[in-house]
Amino acid sequence: MKPQIAIIADDLTGAGDSAVQFVRCGWETQLYVGGSEEAFALGDMQAQVVSVNSNSRAMSPQAAAQAVAREMQTFRRHDVRHVFKKVDSTLRGAFAAEIEAARQQWHENAIAVVCPAYPATGRTLENGVLLVNGTPVTETSAGTDPVTPVTESSVPVMLDCNLVSPTQDDTPATLAQKIGSGGAIVVVDARTDADLKRLAQAIVMLGERALPVGAGGLAMAMAAAWASEPDSGDIVLAVVTSQHSATRAQVTALQAHGATVLTAEPQVLGDDVLWQSWQQQMLARVARGDDVSRILVLLAPARQVPGLTSALVARRLGQLALAIVRTGKVRGLIATGGDGAEQVMTALQATGIRLIDEVSGGVPLGTLIGGEYAGMPIVTKAGGFGSENVLIQAAETLTERKFK
Q1: 382 burial via Cβ count (<10 Å: 0-12, 13-18, 19+)
Q2: What percent of the chain clears pLDDT 90, i.e. is strictly above it?
Q3: Total-model pTM
Q4: Among the CATH numbers 3.40.50.1970, 3.30.70.270, 3.40.980.20, 2.40.30.10, which is that of 235-399?
Q5: DSSP secondary structure letter of residue 141
Q6: Separation of alpha carbons 77 and 39, rounded Å
Q7: Which listed site, 146, 197, 208, 262, has its alpha carbon 20 to 30 Å from 218?
């Protein structure tokens, strides 16, 4: 297996704490004690992500730059697609020298996108200043570190580069435009995990020339953003047959989140001819893709008519789910309601689910066993269960996680 992503840190613990973020997103990840040359020479590479250590934290800027350059050259020789440059979340080490060395070795027109913020540990980047629990980093213990004391809290000053401070109105696309016109090295503010998520999506839009530079916070966001690249379909398909009010509220929340909801009228579901016509119309919509979002919901109607059983509704929606899966555009499934979940699995000829994790308590995540679509991710949820945002969480998990 050839790694798609490489992580390079300046010490072993940094290589580990960034690598584990990719593990949590489902990437096959291996951490090596030494550098990339040793890792690739071992011949036992079985990972999508490889994390290595340049052991350069205490080196002089010149020596650290040379060490990082060697690692980047190895990544290029082995056709690694993306590199994440891990830096200390308090700016210790030969921070500027390593970033510039990595950028120069990556691509001819590479952009180093720098954000060492890690909100979960109190690190935020505000107006370019790195704060630790609200205090400039130079006024913390990092400022008196006996080996690599930090003497500057402003990251743009340290790197002599431009700063981008996103506004609330910025989308990933507009942020990508700002970064793309900001020069060879750009520092980007982030206060929250949501800021990092938006930044990671912008980095993906910039393409392979973008070199993300940060700590565990940005590593977590990049692991999810790179997993979201549509290499195995880009639609999350939800089949909802439950009539429970909790599920209906969850669908409403999912629709407000941007999902496309398709609901056939009861008389359509009860008539073979009408159903076939409606099904073909919906498949054409999916094929065009112009009015269907990346989250598509097949929702059973709330209104009942004589002769229309819940079993027939579930069977119809299961058949349509199979037809949509056959387009090759589906990356994962959500099934809510026991009859609907069973019919989806029956239509796809799946015999079971290999359980992996939970989206939230009592909402399992797994991959299908058996049938032509074995390995496809699926989330199942009982009708009267979960918070109002649970379907949003399920869709995000299927989008931001890598599956075997």
Answers
A1: middle
A2: 77
A3: 0.85
A4: 3.40.980.20
A5: G
A6: 13
A7: 146
